[in-house]
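Ops channel
N.P.: pipeline sanity check, posting one input/output pair.
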């Protein structure tokens, strides 16, 4: 599976898991900000904030463990709910953070609590029992598990004390990202240097590069103007070894600028530097889970090693197995060999492919896989159905799971059409090959999440216009924060802003009669023929 497709699947999974749990009319506190050097935790924080922004939720209180002030939080929050930052510290590995979680439960016994996705691991039965007792005493907690093993642990031990849900990592809410800088090394080895790391002492032997030289690298210019260096080890252009714990803010002026940043700005600081480090390699080797996730967002081929207690492989088997740019490795030597397999594969592929003449067929293999049809699209279908009156004949182009059929008013006739057959009624057409379903008797055409994949949108709209039907149409419009290279990683082949969609419709005799936002990033348009 292409990286953009997996990223979108996991982004939709995260959104569809938490959207029903969060009431936009409530007050929320988002706490346990990761005031540390761990760029992975900061990617999670930014993903959590992206979710809340998509839902229109602005936290009334935010804090780190160090700045937690219960009285201040209580005054701001009232009877609202508490959101606790996700990550990999649910258990007794990082006692400070878990003890903080338990303290919050004691301080706020009457407020709902939602814990964003966590990896759960207890090495002490006593600590596990104490935690279960604390959660049961509170009685109003939802815990999200970040991988299948954690879901098993939480369900087995906490299932009677809390509601347990299963969701991907919050960082996937950031969506596909472009590489951050040039790849100047064959391999960038992002190596854990904390308690979860196990490979620092064996990298030189595993690679056979005895000339690894310690140095300090300047990471270049960033929009925030904060100069940043990283302690690295290098071997010519063959290998760069570092960790995001090796990042350093250079100089007094840069330090003052950093201190002036708010929580979100600091998180963007750490994530941007991590992405710059990873982007230095044509291929990445790592034992950090969020290096794997950030490489997936950027489409960087990489090799994943496990951490010291199995977290990485559990996550990979839970969510990342379909990914076509990641290989698992059992040892540092194995990782080095597999990195060169990926290098050879990437070198065998031309960097740019000239477009072929004539119409290009759509990706039927991708759309035939039911895992690529997301339940999170149901709200989009519900809103589209609200623009259809009873007795209408509806042609659903790109019908997918045919969710909208059950949402239509009574006495409607439903005609499904798609690239692959969804049932015996489906009219199979490849729009990119110039194949279109018949329009006879159709009063309404729904086109939800289709045009992003069309190579000739103008021809498609000319076909739509011939129907004289109402067109109910969704599209993820262009945003400068999500540029064309990122959209291509999703498989999207065009880049329209809202005004461009309206102009496209107007050019074939249609006018806009309604438009609304479908969280997190989709616009729904309704067009009728111009009078």
């Amino acid at each position: 599976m292409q990286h953009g497709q997996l990223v979108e699947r996991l982004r939709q999974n995260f959104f569809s898991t938490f959207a029903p749990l969060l009431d936009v009319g409530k007050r929320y506190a988002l706490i346990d900000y990761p005031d540390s050097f761990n760029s992975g935790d900061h990617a999670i924080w930014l993903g959590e904030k992206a979710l809340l922004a998509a839902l229109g939720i602005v936290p009334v209180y935010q804090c780190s463990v160090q700045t937690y002030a219960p009285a201040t939080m209580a005054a701001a929050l009232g009877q609202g709910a508490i959101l606790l930052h996700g990550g990999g510290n649910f258990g007794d590995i990082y006692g400070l953070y878990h003890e903080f979680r338990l303290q919050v439960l004691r301080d706020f016994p009457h407020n709902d609590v939602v814990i964003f996705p966590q990896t759960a691991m207890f090495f002490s039965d006593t600590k596990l029992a104490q935690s279960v007792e604390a959660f049961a005493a509170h009685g109003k907690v939802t815990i999200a598990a970040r991988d299948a093993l954690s879901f098993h642990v939480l369900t087995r031990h906490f299932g009677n004390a809390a509601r347990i849900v299963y969701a991907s990592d919050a960082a996937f809410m950031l969506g596909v990202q472009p590489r951050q800088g040039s790849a100047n090394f064959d391999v960038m080895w992002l190596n854990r240097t904390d308690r979860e790391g196990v490979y620092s002492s064996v990298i030189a032997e595993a690679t056979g590069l005895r000339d690894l030289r310690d140095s300090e690298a300047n990471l270049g210019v960033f929009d925030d103007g904060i100069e940043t260096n990283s302690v690295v080890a290098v071997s010519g252009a063959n290998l760069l070894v570092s960790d995001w714990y090796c990042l350093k803010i250079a100089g007094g002026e840069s330090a003052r600028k950093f201190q002036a940043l708010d929580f979100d700005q600091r998180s963007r600081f750490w994530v941007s530097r991590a992405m710059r480090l990873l982007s230095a390699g044509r291929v990445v080797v790592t034992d950090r889970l969020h290096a794997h996730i950030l490489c997936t967002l950027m489409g960087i081929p990489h090799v994943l090693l496990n951490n010291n207690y199995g977290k990485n492989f559990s996550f990979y088997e839970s969510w990342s197995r379909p990914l076509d740019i990641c290989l698992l490795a059992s040892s540092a030597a194995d990782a080095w060999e597999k990195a060169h397999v990926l290098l050879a594969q990437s070198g065998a592929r031309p960097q740019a492919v000239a477009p072929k003449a004539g119409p290009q067929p759509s990706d039927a293999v991708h759309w035939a896989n039911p895992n690529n049809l997301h339940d999170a699209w149901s709200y989009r279908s519900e809103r589209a159905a609200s623009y259809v009156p009873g007795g209408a004949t509806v042609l659903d182009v790109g019908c997918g799971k045919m969710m909208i059929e059950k949402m239509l008013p009574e006495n409607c006739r439903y005609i499904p059409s798609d690239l692959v057959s969804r049932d015996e009624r489906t009219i199979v057409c490849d729009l990119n090959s110039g194949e279109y379903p018949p329009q006879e008797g159709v009063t309404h055409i729904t086109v939800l999440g289709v045009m992003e994949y069309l190579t000739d949108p103008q021809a498609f709209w000319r076909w739509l216009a011939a129907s004289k039907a109402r067109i109910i149409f969704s599209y993820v419009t262009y945003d400068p924060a999500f540029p064309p290279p990122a959209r291509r990683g999703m498989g999207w082949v065009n880049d329209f802003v809202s005004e461009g969609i309206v102009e496209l419709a107007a050019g074939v005799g249609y006018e806009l009669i309604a438009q609304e936002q479908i969280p997190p990033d989709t616009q729904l348009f309704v067009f009728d023929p111009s009078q």
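N.P.: looks fine end to end. Residues 348-358 have pLDDT under 50 and may be disordered.
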